[in-house]
Design goal:
7 strands, 7-stranded mixed sheet, alpha+beta, disordered N terminus, Bifunctional nuclease domain
């Protein structure tokens, strides 16, 4: 068995490291939301995701074993089988109200980047226990888009809303 050496993660100064603050249902649309929180501040970014992707994230957060590999487990196993390592994932863009992510892998001396949906990238990051980042430009555009849509994006109000969520609302993933 070959063992992959994990190279040091290269962090771009235009990226902010985040952690999952909560996984919850939007009370209006009943769509799952992954709430990402800046590790160094109170800044949060909610990302609406699909039901199956939210389930994949929840399974890993709960460390629930499944009898057979789920899709993201399969992707992790394929990468390991190819002696690749997932170093980090980045929510890298926001275009037309759609978030984009990039998965950064290392296979030997070759760095590989793969376009992904943020929900898939986050589910994979959890399985690799690697850092999750958000591009600063995405945070700026998400606030701007919310303001243009008439959504009150006051950071203090959002923070209060998140802090007042109970475990039923966040799926028990308060951090």
């Amino acid at each position: 068995m070959k063992v992959a050496i994990v190279p040091e993660v290269e962090v771009d100064s235009a990226e902010i490291e985040v952690q999952i603050r909560g996984l919850m249902l939007d009370p209006v649309t009943n769509m799952p939301i992954v709430v990402l929180k800046d590790v160094a501040s109170e800044l949060v970014l909610p990302i609406w995701v699909g039901v199956f992707e939210a389930n994949a994230i929840a399974l890993e957060l709960e460390k629930t074993a499944t009898p057979r590999p789920m899709t993201h487990d399969l992707l992790r196993n394929i990468a390991r089988g190819l002696n690749a390592v997932v170093n980090k994932v980045v929510v890298s863009d926001l275009r037309e109200d759609t978030f984009y992510a990039t998965i950064f892998l290392q296979q030997g001396d070759e760095a590989v980047t793969i376009d992904a949906r943020p929900s898939d990238a986050i589910a994979l990051a959890l399985r690799w226990d690697c850092p999750i980042y958000v591009a600063k430009s995405v945070l700026g555009r998400s606030r701007q888009n919310g303001a243009e849509a008439g959504v009150d994006v006051n950071a203090d109000q959002l923070k209060k809303w998140l802090e007042n969520l109970n475990e039923d609302e966040t799926g028990g993933y308060k951090m």
